[in-house]
């Protein structure tokens, strides 16, 4: 029988509707789930009851869990007639059923039973799924269906339920879905209800001649740039057929593969498992065996064992089909020696006899083969091998040694771990909120002085301090709210230190307290967390012991804190403009995905050499793609300026306003012992909302990087991208929802807080990923996350200024056109505008319909010029093609600066000049607003008198004069002929400019 149970903790309710006729309620909660009902105790005369009761439901059919619903009804018990009155209900679907470790207390607003119900208040519940066999189900209510009392049949727990309790991460390895059966597709830790079938791309069968690649515009309105810097649409032949204009044109032999976004590559796989009874080379019986697999000039080696006759390797070698230079495969066992390795034995295979394996077939079973010598005579010893032909869809592909990655002359066994493709998951980040309230009974060394105390809080390398407070009674109060970033699993502790400022740069520690983060309460909303007193200890070791140590002493100082893990926020760990995930930290608040994003990394062309090897320039490149919590890294292709990757990855999409980032890097760990940083070659960003559903985008993106010498194109990256929508209604509904979780609006963070916390989050993610094997290095994470986007740059400032001008260029064009109408530059146009103006004034009800109809027609007209391709980096918009060498040197300078004093002085003077112009513009805008305030503030009594009298006269005139007449007079006056105009400003403008601003009060 299955041990799966649904646990529900009924915490409490607040602000309930009074129903007992005396302004109160006798509230209790009744829970319904899977034909079972449980009930809490009755809290009499309480509109804010607290129960803190736990119930456990048996799940009779785990395979049907995703279709079950938990209902919580709140009732008022009427003692007079022993009846109950409805106070509200909460209905939770399967998306709220999470493991206990991820469960949080959420306060749900009570819903009405029908439109006549009167309901208010909230109910606090904690809902989770557990498979702990020691937990027994609760006793149900007497009135139950007889079907529930029977023993539930033993059910097989589905994958999504078992994955809830797995300590390992969900299957994240990129599964090349070139599989004919659904049972072997990529596993995901979501209920089957959330896995909707992929859309059927039923394109018509048609044949077309291959089309040449064409240069496309990035998006409408983008300024032109060099043709070499624009993206090119291509028509490659991929696994599903040829891609033409985003459509898949299938050939005569329709492939059964769904692995259709990359080119299908054939490989010869050799799995070396183990050996036995190997002959020893001397009387001591010592043997240092290893295996060499070779075909033509390509060869790979396993690791060697010292003095072992029965070694186990279990290593896989993959030889690309184009690298098969011979029809014979040789697997040679050798003995490692100082000078020349000795031959132990050989196993040969004819490639024509090697079987072909097509997933989802099970892996080929390895066999024992007798070793033979050079003459073909059998020798002592056997080698267990498996040899087969397959594609990159094979399960052994990610962990294999690749001939197309290393090359025929390369032999770098120490670098094998650094060239394999890997999938990484960034840690789940939490905001740690610490509210420092007060301290009591502080003990300082000098009791004759009033302590100037503050609190220093540290998590890892994050340190924040409260403001200093002087308290005569040794009981200071701070009430400071501090935020930190922490990552699961919580390895660091929260260290609280109370210090006393004795003098300048001289502090004395008063006491310490240590709080393990895994003991801190989690919350997903803005409910109030209970404060708690923590004892202050003199030493760190005593503080680590916590309350056990404080019980030894009858008296000790203590500090009052309110600490919680805020799961209602989204922890920003990348630039806000390029966020790839906007979900809150708490998994209970996650919604179902709206689509699937598929990325095929095909190849790179024309890369610039990043290093020199054997007297020629070369590169060892790999690609990194980031979306959400999932990072992927392709295998490293060594010694190639035109590498072919052909790897495919998949992500779930929860919000269309997110960005996929793909970067290309040169692996500096290959053949280098000094730990050089990986070199960035370029980056591509794809915003999901710019992709049409179901279309396959096959473009070659230029890899543009800004160097101290200017912008450079270091090659091109060829990608295939498809966004498939699983729920069109949910995706359209997303456009009506806030961009960030609700907590960002209920308790918003300041801009300074966000930037500071983002910097800490990027450091945590970079540290965690750099500890993986192989490590995803810090410089890669920072480049992909745009960690330095907040630093000052003259180039970015100019670019943003011209972007602002481009935004207002439409309004400026309208103003210029209207000025030409008023100046009668084109009399026919002016007369038509007069006629339209008279019609709108005479029929004012047509104004808004005309405006909206005009915008509708503009939208239809612009549909012809809609962008058909995703946007890419634009050097003109970035102002990278007109930047000076000195501005580039300033942008690449470190922070703080390392440049000479005279150069820094020159740049500082230039910055002051630019900032002076900006402050002048800001001051002018502020002055106009202050003049508007001065109209009625009597700062200029005469001007205010004139304006007040004008308002009175205008009110009388507007009262007796129809609005249409006034509008006609005003409109004809504005559009009057130039012969009736004066060159001096008009009277209202003169009056407004004479009004006082607050510039007189500026120092």
From TrEMBL:
Repeat among keywords: yes
Comp. bias (Basic and acidic residues): 169-189
Native source organism of the sequence: Trema orientale
Region (Disordered): 169-192
All residue ranges annotated as the C2 domain in the record: 1-108, 249-369, 408-534, 578-701
Compartment(s) where it occurs, according to its Swiss-Prot or TrEMBL record: Membrane
Membrane topology reported for the UniProt record: Multi-pass membrane protein
Keywords: Calcium, Glycosyltransferase, Membrane, Repeat, Transferase, Transmembrane, Transmembrane helix
Keyword DNA repair annotated: no
Membrane-spanning residues: 831-861, 946-974
SUPFAM superfamilies the record matches: C2 domain (Calcium/lipid-binding domain, CaLB)
GO MF annotation list: glycosyltransferase activity
Name by which UniProt lists this protein: Phosphoribosyltransferase
Annotated Pfam families: C2 (PF00168), PRT_C (PF08372)
Function: May function as a signaling molecule by regulating the trafficking of other regulators.
Family: Belongs to the MCTP family.
GO-annotated cellular components: membrane
């Amino acid at each position: 029988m299955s041990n799966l149970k649904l646990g529900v903790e009924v915490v409490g309710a607040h602000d309930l509707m009074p129903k007992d006729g005396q302004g109160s309620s006798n509230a209790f909660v009744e829970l319904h789930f899977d034909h079972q009902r449980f009930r809490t105790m009755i809290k009499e005369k309480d509109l804010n009851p607290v129960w803190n009761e736990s119930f456990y439901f048996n799940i009779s059919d785990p395979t049907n869990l995703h279709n079950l619903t938990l209902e919580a009804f709140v009732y008022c018990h009427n003692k007079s007639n022993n009846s109950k009155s409805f106070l509200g209900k909460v209905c939770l679907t399967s998306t709220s059923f999470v493991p206990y470790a991820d469960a949080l207390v959420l306060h749900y607003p009570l819903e009405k039973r029908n439109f006549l119900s009167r309901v208010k208040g909230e109910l606090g519940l904690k809902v989770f799924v557990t498979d702990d066999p020691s937990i027994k189900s609760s006793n149900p209510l007497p009135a139950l269906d007889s079907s529930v009392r029977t023993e539930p049949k033993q059910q097989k727990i589905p994958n999504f339920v078992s994955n809830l309790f797995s300590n390992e991460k969900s299957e994240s390895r990129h599964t090349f879905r070139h599989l004919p059966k659904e049972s072997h597709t990529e596993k995901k830790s979501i209920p089957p209800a959330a896995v909707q079938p992929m859309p059927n791309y039923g394109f018509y069968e048609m044949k077309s001649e291959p089309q040449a690649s064409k240069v496309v515009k990035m998006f409408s309105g983008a300024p032109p740039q060099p043709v070499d810097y624009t993206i090119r649409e291509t028509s490659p032949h991929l696994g599903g057929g040829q891609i033409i204009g985003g459509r898949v044109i299938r050939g005569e032999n329709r492939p059964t593969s769904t692995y259709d976004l990359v080119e299908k590559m054939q490989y010869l796989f050799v799995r070396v498992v183990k050996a036995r009874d190997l002959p020893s080379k001397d009387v001591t019986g010592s043997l240092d065996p290893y295996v060499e697999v070779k075909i033509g000039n390509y060869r790979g080696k396993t690791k060697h064992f010292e003095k072992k006759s029965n070694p186990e390797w279990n290593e896989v070698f993959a030889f690309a089909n184009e690298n098969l230079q011979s029809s014979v495969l040789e697997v040679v066992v050798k003995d490692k020696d100082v000078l020349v390795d000795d031959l132990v034995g050989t196993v040969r295979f004819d490639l024509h006899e090697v079987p072909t394996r097509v997933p989802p077939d099970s892996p080929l079973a390895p066999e024992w083969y007798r070793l033979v010598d050079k003459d073909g005579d059998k020798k002592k010893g056997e080698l267990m091998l498996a040899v087969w032909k397959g594609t990159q869809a094979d399960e052994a592909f990610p962990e294999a040694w690749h001939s197309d990655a290393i090359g025929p002359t390369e032999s770098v066994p120490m670098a094998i771990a650094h060239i394999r493709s890997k999938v990484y998951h960034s840690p789940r980040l939490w905001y740690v909120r610490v509210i420092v309230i007060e301290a009591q009974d502080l003990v300082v060394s000098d009791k004759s002085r009033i302590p100037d105390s503050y609190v220093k809080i540290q998590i890892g390398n994050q340190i924040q301090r409260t403001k200093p407070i002087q308290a005569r009674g040794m009981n200071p109060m701070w009430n400071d709210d501090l935020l930190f970033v922490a990552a699961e699993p919580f390895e660091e502790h929260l260290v609280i230190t109370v210090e006393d400022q004795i003098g300048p740069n001289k502090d004395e520690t008063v006491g310490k307290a240590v709080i393990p983060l895994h003991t801190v309460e989690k919350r997903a909303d803005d409910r109030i967390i209970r404060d708690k007193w923590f004892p202050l200890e003199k030493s760190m070791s005593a503080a680590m012991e916590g309350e056990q140590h404080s019980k030894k002493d009858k008296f000790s100082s203590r500090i009052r804190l309110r600490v919680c893990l805020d799961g209602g926020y989204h922890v920003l760990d990348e630039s806000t403009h390029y966020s790839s995930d906007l979900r809150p930290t708490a998994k209970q608040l996650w919604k179902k995905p709206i689509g699937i994003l598929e990325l095929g990394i095909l190849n790179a062309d024309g890369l610039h050499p990043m290093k020199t090897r054997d007297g020629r320039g070369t590169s060892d490149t790999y690609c990194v793609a980031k979306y959400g919590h999932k990072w992927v890294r392709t295998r490293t292709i060594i010694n190639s300026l035109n590498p072919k990757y052909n790897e495919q990855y998949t992500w779930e999409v929860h919000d269309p306003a997110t960005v996929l980032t793909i970067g290309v890097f040169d692996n500096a760990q290959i053949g280098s012992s000094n730990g050089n940083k990986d070199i960035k070659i370029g980056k591509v960003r794809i915003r999901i909302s710019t992709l049409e559903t179901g279309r396959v985008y096959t473009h070659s993106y230029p890899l543009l990087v800004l160097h101290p010498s200017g912008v450079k194109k270091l090659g091109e990256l060829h990608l295939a991208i498809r966004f498939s929508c699983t729920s069109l209604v949910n995706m359209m509904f997303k456009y009506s929802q806030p961009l960030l979780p609700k907590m960002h609006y209920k308790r918003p963070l300041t801009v300074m807080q966000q930037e500071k916390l983002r910097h800490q989050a990027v450091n945590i993610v970079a540290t965690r990923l750099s500890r993986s094997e192989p490590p995803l290095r810090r410089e890669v994470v920072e480049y992909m996350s745009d960690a330095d986007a907040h630093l000052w740059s003259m180039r970015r400032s100019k670019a943003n200024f011209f972007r602002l001008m481009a935004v207002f260029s439409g309004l400026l064009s309208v103003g210029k056109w209207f000025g030409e109408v008023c100046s009668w530059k084109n009399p026919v146009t002016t007369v038509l505008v007069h006629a339209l103006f008279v019609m709108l004034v005479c029929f004012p009800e047509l104004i808004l319909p005309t405006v909206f109809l005009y915008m509708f027609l503009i939208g239809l007209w612009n549909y012809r010029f809609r962008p058909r391709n995703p946007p890419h980096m634009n050097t003109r918009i970035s102002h990278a093609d007109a930047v000076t060498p000195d501005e580039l040197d300033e942008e690449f300078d470190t922070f703080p600066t390392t440049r000479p004093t005279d150069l820094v002085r020159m740049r500082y003077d230039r910055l002051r000049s630019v900032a002076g112009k900006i402050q002048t513009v800001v001051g002018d805008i502020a002055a106009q607003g202050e003049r508007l305030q001065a109209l009625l503030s009597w700062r200029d009594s005469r001007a205010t008198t004139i304006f007040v009298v004008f308002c009175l006269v205008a009110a009388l005139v507007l009262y007796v004069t129809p609005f249409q007449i006034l509008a006609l007079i005003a409109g004809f006056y504005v559009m009057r002929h130039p012969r009736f105009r004066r060159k001096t400003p008009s009277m209202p403008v003169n009056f407004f400019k004479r009004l006082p601003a607050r510039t007189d009060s500026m120092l």
